[in-house]
Each structure stands twice: as C-alpha cells, then as structure tokens.
C-alpha cells in the first residue's frame, strides 16, 4: 500500500545517509587515548538526524516514529558490525573508549529525539546491546557476567558469549602486539586473567 511504500523510501534514504556518514569514520583502532569527545562523523550524523527528524512534523506521528526507530536500529547495528568486523584484528582500550564516546553521543540523541510519542527510554533501547557490551569490556566485570550468566538479573543479559569472545580476542591481540613490540611480556596477570575468561566464555558459547 501507499504508506508502506513511503515508509520504505524514507527508511532507505535515511539508511543511505547514515552509511555516507559512517564511511567518513576513520577509527584508529590502536589509539592510545580517547579524544575526550565524540568523533566528528558521529557528531555530524547526530546533527543531520536532529534536523531531519525536526522536519518530520508534517508526517503522521506513527510514520515519523517508525522511521526514527528504524534509523536508530540501523545505526546501532552498523556500529556493532564495526566492532565485530572479522578484518579488524586488534583493538586498544583507548580506541574502545573513543568508540564508547560515540555511542554515548548516539544515546544522548535518542534521549532528546525531536519525534514525539516515544515512551521513556524506548528509543535508547536500540543501543542497549552496544551499551551492555561496552560497559562489560570497559569495566572488565567478567566476574559478574560469568556468575549471573543465564539469569534475568544479569546486567549484561544482552551480551552473547560469542560477541564477548569476538571483541575480547581483539583486545588481547592488541595487548600481545604491544608487549611484543616492547620486547617483554608486560601485564602477565592481565593476560592470565583474560585467558581464563576467554576459556570460560568459550565453554558458555558451546554449552
């Protein structure tokens, strides 16, 4: 029907614009320290989305909310895909912190979205998978994750073991390269801990 066709055209156009902004991203995945603010391409993308959704006042509210929700879901999915990209072999904690700043910027947009009618927190939930994964990786709260795995109380309930493994292996690979470069095995305790965590995650993934 006509409305479905309009929805699809707007969805496709917005996805195309999101892709254009993401193509401008130039992440240094071995960054030593984050910049302290969101990356330019994310800031520019959020400005574009804010302006675009403000112009949706002439659309039926249901259609405007649908398009906004789909755009945020697509962006969250694409950001997750960046982290999980099999061609990306190593990630520093500095790069992860910078990536986190970008996700925070996206979450801030969802909390202040100009499209009316969303229930509180509904739009922000589109980034929940990323948020829980980043919180887990940056806090190294593996004890809680493993102890509460499979239980509703697990604050990282959206993080699949396979996803955690994929990113943790990249972090460990960066550590390995850095230690190899300096010619000595620094942080042996950290390596031992991560090896143990990785082994337990693999057990969960194959359970």
Automatic annotation (TrEMBL):
Coiled coil: none
GO biological process: Golgi to plasma membrane transport; intracellular protein transport; vesicle tethering involved in exocytosis
InterPro entries named among the record's database cross-references: EXOC6/Sec15, EXOC6/Sec15_C, EXOC6PINT-1/Sec15/Tip20_C_dom2
UniProt keyword annotations, A-Z: Coiled coil, Exocytosis, Transport
Exocyst complex subunit EXOC6/Sec15 C-terminal domain segment(s): 1-170
GO CC, any one term: membrane
Highest taxon in the source lineage: Eukaryota
Pfam families: Sec15_C (PF04091)
Function in brief: Component of the exocyst complex involved in the docking of exocytic vesicles with fusion sites on the plasma membrane.
Family: Belongs to the SEC15 family.
Protein name: Exocyst complex component 6
Organism: Plectus sambesii
